[in-house]
Design a protein that fits this description.
Oligomer: single chain
Radius of gyration: 17 Å
Number of strands: 9
Number of helices: 4
Distance between the termini: 12 Å
Strand order of the largest sheet: 2-1-5-6-9
Strand content: 35-45%
Helix content: 25-40%
Largest sheet: 5 strands, antiparallel
Shape: globular
Structural class: alpha+beta
Length: about 200
């Protein structure tokens, strides 16, 4: 599997049996000056939500749909998002370069055994609770990412969530502190990761 549409096809929606087609992992971490996670503040892995990735002009929308508004995982993920948002707001209000940098990493891995690819997104621009049907219960978390912070990886190696978080957090950190050089560094970093995993 080597194209973004192919990955999205094995992630989005439900399969022929009405089952989720992917799992997700979400981590709220703090980064040091080197862009490395120094502390995992909270994390949650979810095996049953329906995922829908929707590309738009310059952004990427990710909907995480649950069976019910009472789902425990929905509440846990929302709590993590709220913690990250508050911490991030406090960090930028202080403008203290010595403070650890809050970062949030979303990993999406297809359940099908035929694929060796996955998706990683970092630091959402916004998040919201919504319903999947009109007048229905609020059972969906909607995340909006800068499209530059969403990466589709093609790999035959085993996937380690912590390794993914480290790689992407490092990249996001560098974007904050060296924005003028980031485009070139990002492409180089992605190429290095892909090369290692082939």
């Amino acid at each position: 599997m080597k194209t973004i549409p192919e990955i999205m096809n094995v992630i989005n929606g439900l399969d022929e049996n009405g089952e989720a087609k992917a799992i997700i992992g979400i981590q709220y971490v703090l980064l040091n000056k080197a862009g490395e996670p120094v502390k995992i503040m909270d994390k949650e892995d979810v095996y049953k939500p329906e995922i829908n990735i929707i590309p738009r002009d310059g952004i990427m929308q990710v909907d995480i749909r649950f069976d019910s508004e009472q789902d425990i995982s929905l509440a846990k993920i929302w709590k993590i998002l709220e913690q990250y948002t508050k911490s991030s707001g406090d960090f930028y209000a202080k403008d203290d370069a010595d403070e650890p940098i809050p970062s949030l990493i979303l990993s999406i891995i297809p359940l099908t055994e035929e694929t060796d690819s996955y998706v990683v997104a970092g630091d959402p621009l916004m998040h919201a609770l919504t319903a999947t049907v009109p007048k229905g219960g609020v059972n969906c978390i909607r995340l909006i990412f800068n499209a530059d912070f969403v990466h589709f990886f093609f790999s035959e190696d085993a996937i380690d969530m912590n390794d993914i978080a480290t790689e992407v957090s490092d990249e996001l950190y560098r974007r904050e502190y060296a924005s003028r050089q980031m485009d070139a560094r990002r492409e180089q970093r992605i190429a290095e990761i892909q090369k290692k995993r082939y």
